[in-house]
Amino acid sequence: MKRLTFDTFIPHKSNQGAYEIAREVARMQPELPRPVVFLGESGSGKTHLLWAIVNYFRDRNSVVRLALISPRDFPDKVKRLSSDEDKLKAQPPIVLLVDDLHGFAQHAADLEKTVLALIQHGHNAVLATRIHPNVLSGFSGKFKALLNAGAIAGIKALPKAEGTIIPEAALDQILELKSKVTRLQKDKALLEAEKGGAAAAPKEDAVAPAVPQADTASSVSREHFNRALKEIQKARAETESWKKTAAAMMNRVESYKALQQSQFSSIEEKIQELLAFADQDILSLDEESLHAANAEITAILARSSAEHAAALQGESQKTLRSLAEQFKALDDTLPG
Prior knowledge:
about 325 residues; alpha/beta; Rossmann fold; Helix Hairpins; 10 helices; flat
């Protein structure tokens, strides 16, 4: 996770607030509200900012006690902090970073005690979640109030550039780097040509006396040349870094696409089952069967993603409505 730094994070109007607060946390700004909550969907950059804080402290050998935890990694030594008064009162300060807060339902009580104890003793906690604190399940009203009293920074995924899966801001920076490399390569070629011309000049007039101004010009050219080389090397390094970041983004996008395709296939199969159910002989349907169909539809809706639930609900309601109409028509034809 060493590559997840503030330098590799792409600031944008969709994440600027969270980015600036994360930098203030890393700089240990005393006036910053505590705790801090990063609120955003999966893939918006919350984890990147948490690791950027970690790497900022590590790169500068900051005097701070630091822990980054998640629902899958919540060490006992962190849980015990809430009851260890000596460690809570000791220096240096503690910064607790919590990833995927929404997944801590089974450890809610331990996490609450830990965060509350840290804040009460003047330490800090930064929590990342895709669910607003007000509707987190498993946590007390006191804990939710504490989170709301701190700083809640919304963060959104970078908008994609048209015709590409690379975020627009990342694409802009990549193009800017390419332009910079091209410009520096031209400067390098120009300086090399000037240097070559200066070296060839004495051959044209071997008896000409040395000219101090020429030496000065040559020295300046070498200085410009060396500076240009350093700029090119830096730009190339930045370009390579962005290539790796773009590749990682593409891998995440492909994983997301595969997951979505799997969900689509599962929902499509269930819809086909429901439609086949609706086509059965109406005489074989009774009230219990209709209730069973309704329960099945409810279960499918619960498993489907929010973005597709509305469409699926419309299909299921039409299916149930069709069944109910057929059942009523059959009932009207039967003797009383």
